[in-house]
Specification:
This protein has about 300 residues and is α/β, with parallel strands linked by helices. It contains 9 helices and 7 strands; from the N terminus they run ααααααβαβββαβαββ. The chain has 2 domains: about 180 residues, no CATH class; about 110 residues, NAD(P)-binding Rossmann-like Domain (Rossmann fold), CATH 3.40.50.720. Strands 3-4-2-1-5-6-7 form a 7-stranded mixed beta sheet. The longest helix is centred in the middle third of the chain and has 47 residues.
């Protein structure tokens, strides 16, 4: 018989086995997820333990075939098809029993940590050790190299561990996105009633203010910055954390008029610089006094002082 015909027969045999196992898994999962059982235990947000056990057993079934192929390459075609399938099936049953005994299917994939690895390692080692005498009994028909089991320890471990950590990574990514959405929503709700303010300072001090106070959930000061008045004319037109640098400090009146045309009426001005030129400070004090605005000065990361003449 040619190699092509052997490969074709073996491929059809594997296809029928995989199809049968897939149908069995669907039936098992359908029984587990019956409506009357959902009320007892919510499986909508987690993988049921029996499904994990079925998956691990199927992975063990495939791992032996992969290990045989890694060990002897295409020479596995010289073996009887039923002999290979028989070894794979027996090894899958052994692993299922060990997994059930070690309770490796009871851990949550999305919470997988280093502490979950020792039971998996022990299960893999024990499964291969228990399969060894069974393999010797089945070697009467053909001879399977013992080193296949050594290779299989690494293959099966990787096939069991990688999906768990991928699930953990996807869950962490999902939770991170949900946290960002929650923070954004909470920040938006806070800004609805937060006073609109203009910031005064150079780019570095304004960025520190926006980072450490406005964007810091641990600091309970509600401000809605709508623009920055800079002391450096070269910064005009740029943005810091999404807040535009609208103009120089000397052009504050023009900036307020332009903002008013857009329906924005800031009533507070916050100096983010710990120390600004005395003439600039006097100019601001006089301006806010003439226009009924409130002027505040950052004197510490979380401390403000109302500036008066």
């Amino acid at each position: 018989m040619s190699i092509e015909s052997k490969l074709s027969r073996f491929g059809k045999l594997l296809d029928s086995i995989v199809t049968g196992m897939a149908e069995s898994i669907k039936i098992l999962l359908a029984r587990v997820n019956k409506p009357e059982k959902v009320s007892k235990r919510n499986y909508t947000s987690m993988t049921p333990p029996c499904a994990i056990l079925v998956f691990d057993s199927f992975v063990a079934f495939l791992s032996l075939f992969i290990s045989i192929h890694l060990r002897i390459g295409m020479d596995f075609l010289d073996y009887s098809h039923m002999y290979i399938i028989k070894n794979m099936f027996v090894f899958g049953l052994v692993c299922s029993s060990v997994f059930l005994w070690m309770q490796t299917h009871q851990s949550f994939w999305r919470y997988t940590s280093i502490e979950d690895l020792p039971p998996i390692f022990l299960s893999v080692i024990l499964s291969n050790m228990l399969f060894l005498p069974l393999m010797l009994l089945m070697n009467q028909e053909d001879f399977l190299p013992y080193s296949v089991l050594i290779i299989n320890m690494f293959v099966l471990t990787l096939m069991l561990v990688i999906p768990r950590f991928l699930s953990r990574m996807l869950y962490n990514q999902k939770m991170k996105k949900a946290k960002l959405v929650e923070q954004s929503t909470r920040r938006h709700e806070q800004f609805v009633d937060a006073p609109q303010v203009l910031l005064v300072g150079d780019s570095s001090s304004a960025e520190i203010f926006l980072r450490d106070i406005v964007s810091n959930d641990d600091v309970h000061f509600n401000f809605d910055p709508i623009g920055i008045l800079t002391l450096d004319p070269f910064d005009v037109g740029r943005m810091i954390r999404g807040i535009p640098i609208v103009s120089e400090l000397k052009d504050i009146h023009i900036s307020l008029i332009e903002l008013g045309k857009n329906g924005i009426f800031p009533r507070q001005i916050v100096i983010t610089e710990k120390s600004i030129p005395e003439n600039a400070k006097k100019f601001l004090v006089k301006y806010v006094k003439d226009h009924g605005l409130l002027l505040m000065h950052v004197i510490h990361q979380c401390m403000f002082d109302t500036v008066s003449e």
